[in-house]
Structure formats: structure tokens, C-alpha cells
Target: Derlin
Amino acid sequence: MLLYVWSREFPTAQVNIYGLVSLKAFYLPWAMLALDVIFGSPIMPDLLGIMAGHLYYFLTVLYLLSSEKHILKTPNWVYPFTSVILLLKFSIHCIASFIIIFFRIEN
Model:
């Protein structure tokens, strides 16, 4: 999915595959799918990633350009949780740093 979305955002970027083939980023998801077919890997994860990436890109970029409606906008009730999570992460980092300094734990 990430590869597909990146390839849509930067379609003219030049990408090398194993230093052998140079192509535009627009074709990279399909080239990776072809490589998986050649190497005998299952193609279903790649196809699902391409479909999910296309759906995400369509809903966040293409649909927004044509209708100016945000379908995948983050709900407002989520934003207060982000500050709590950041505070918790910072607290854990401070406690871990204190433990490392106090007990002189070596990595």
C-alpha cells in the first residue's frame, strides 16, 4: 500500500530495481508484482496492497479534488488521545533514561 501511494505521489521519479532496470516510480508496484510472480512468491499480498493503496489514494486525493469532501478525515474525538499518548511516551522515555543513568545499565 505504501509503495503504491508513494508511486502515485511521485510518478516521474526514477527508480532502479536491483541496479539492473531503471523505470519511473509510477510502474514500480507493477514491477514488484512481476518480480514476485517470477520468483514464485504469492501475489495476493501484492494485489491487496495495490488495491488498498488505490482505494486510499482515490479517497484522499482524487475524490477530494473532484468533490472537495474529506471522506477519510480523522474524527475530532481522536485528537485528545494523541496528546495523552505523547505524554505517556515522554514519561516512559524519562523513566527509562533515569533507570539507565541511575543503575548505569550498559547497552
